[in-house]
Amino acid sequence: MLVQSEFFTKADGDPVAVENADGRSEVLLVCEHASSRLPERYGDLGLSQEALASHIAWDPGALAVSRLMSRSLDAVLIHQRFSRLIYDCNRPPESPAAMRDVSEVFRIPGNENLTEAERSLRTTSLYLPFHGRIREEIAERQARGRPTVLVTVHSFTPVYFGKLREVEIGILHEKDSRLADRMLAAAADTRLYHVARNEPYGPADGVTHTLEVHALPAGLLNVMIEIRNDLIADETGQGVVADFLTGLLRESLADV
Length: 256
Prior knowledge:
The chain has helices at residues 2-7, 49-53, 62-73, 116-143, 178-186, 209-214, 235-253, and strands spanning 16-19, 27-31, 76-80, 102-103, 106-107, 149-156, 159-160, 163-164, 169-172, 195-197, 221-228. It is of the alpha/beta class.
């Protein structure tokens, strides 16, 4: 707590946000890359406003979709309040991707040559509270005999390193594919979106950390959802995608 109080200013506020805390759904929504905001102590990390608004800083539209799903499902939503440029909460501390000094075509001056002390400070102030809050939520549910289905929500850019991505919604999973299998089966006949398994990323890319930490050890049903961000750039698109995903989840969990 002392480290956090030294890291954040009053204007920064807390690193973790919980919305619809009394939600009754078995679904627990998590959005690791919800915000492009930087803590005051870091200024702009030496980046342009264009870079700070781009996908390297956050997952555009992911929080908006998560909030709509939270309301429809009556689900608890936990999200990170600061940019992944400072710490990517979907990566473990030992991963080079946790605090990148280069992201796609952008060099990140404020992340170059980080000391071990700085890396430890960011881990303690951002990563640990975020995953600690998820762990607490799951533990509280288990203590009450209440099931948990962990669903993480992300977005991805339509063009990456100059390559167009045709997939529109990715259903990602680690070793436990139970929920992903059901969702993919439910989406098999849709003409609304191009839905694919473990696209545009998969477990080999190190993107399933939150599922690995919280769902796999406890045997919880889980899935990671990736949405192409041009589909959720406005309220209309966000609403359509949220309705589609909510429907998939309801159908997939109906007989569980």
